[in-house]
Known about the structure:
Elements: H1 7-15, H2 19-31, H3 35-47, H4 55-66, H5 71-83, H6 91-103, H7 107-117, H8 122-137
Helix pairs in contact: 1-2, 2-3, 3-4, 4-5, 5-6, 6-7, 6-8
Amino acid sequence: MSWGADFQKGSEAYKNGDYATALREWEPLAKQEDARAQYNLGIMYEHGKGIPQDNKTAVQWYRLAAEQGYANAQYNLGLMYGLGQGVIQDNVYAHVWWNIAASQGIKSATKNRDIVAGRMTPAQIAEARKLSRECVKKNYKGC
């Protein structure tokens, strides 16, 4: 069944507002650990595109993609922590994920990390930096 899944077909469908087709194409790929498909499902759940809006499920999909090193998912995971959407609001983990995304070249992650750092104590910033280093050493797994 999943052998017919087509990422590009899902992308075209999504662009055209055919969210049911996008979901049908991306879900099997996401379950096969395709980070792009996981990230896109996260977007669909976060924004309720063709499925009921569900931030907790969005976070689950973003986390799976982020753990594979997908920078956009790492950025969005930082957003979810920063805003407390689908997870308990946590500036330390927002900083961690934005720091990791920034290290992969996501410029807005640098900006957001620096903004959230302004709301944190020096001890929280030190903890976030330590967690970021540990996360990178673990290849983003279990962060």
